[in-house]
Amino acid sequence: MDGTLAPTDDPITAQVACKLRSLERQGIRIVFISGRTASYLAGLARGIGICQPLVAGENGGVIFEPLRKWEKKLEAIPHQIGEVMKQDLLKKFPDLWFQPNQTMLTAAPKDFSTVNLLYQAVQALEPVKRNKYKINRYDDCVEVMPKENSKGRALAVVKEILGIRSEEVIVFGNTIVDLPMKDETNDFLMIGDAAVAEGISNYPCIEEALDYLESNL
């Protein structure tokens, strides 16, 4: 979402929302897969006018279909372990905000200049080392998630739900956290240059990537 459909912390533009609605009317199923919560993504989809949204929040940890109120959770950090990690981090960073997740931990400092220090503190957490949890660092937060989960695994589940093949899937991404989805599609469109490799088509902005999609339907 952030950095793909819109620059981080900016709203999705009316132009992009219009293109997504147009694609849905043409029979394209719109699926949002993000580090945001599934409930946030469902609300966002409704807000921009997507009629049949399917979302996978927490980097694929929670897959949710709002219309049917159907939900599937993948692996989750046990609640008790999550609370221990939160308390340990709050001792060093009292102003931390935690995203209300179900399967992973997302910690955001009030002062984004401390993200590197937060990342180092997360790396040193005993539960992270013991359970070999994945750590994702962004400009505004740090995520801790079960090693089994990924956006690629979530997309594989989505493909099974919808009964579609890799050649029927087009993925839009913008960071290395999106790369596991590359194995589930024949068409991976990267917004920006976070990854440049064979099998990845890079575009400077989402508008140009959507234009490519529309011209190849």
Automatic annotation (TrEMBL):
InterPro entries in the record, alphabetically? HAD-like_sf (IPR036412), HAD-SF_hydro_IIB (IPR006379), HAD_sf (IPR023214), SPP-like_dom (IPR006380)
Pfam families xrefs: S6PP (PF05116)
The keyword Hydrolase appears for this protein: yes
Keyword Hydrolase set for record: yes
Ordered alphabetically, the record's keywords are: Hydrolase
- What GO cellular component entries does it have? cytosol
A single Gene Ontology MF term assigned here is: magnesium ion binding
The segment(s) forming the Sucrose phosphatase-like domain are 1-194
Which PANTHER family does the UniProt entry name for this protein?
Answer: HAD SUPERFAMILY HYDROLASE-LIKE, TYPE 3, PHOSPHOSERINE PHOSPHATASE
Name used for this protein in its record: HAD-IIB family hydrolase
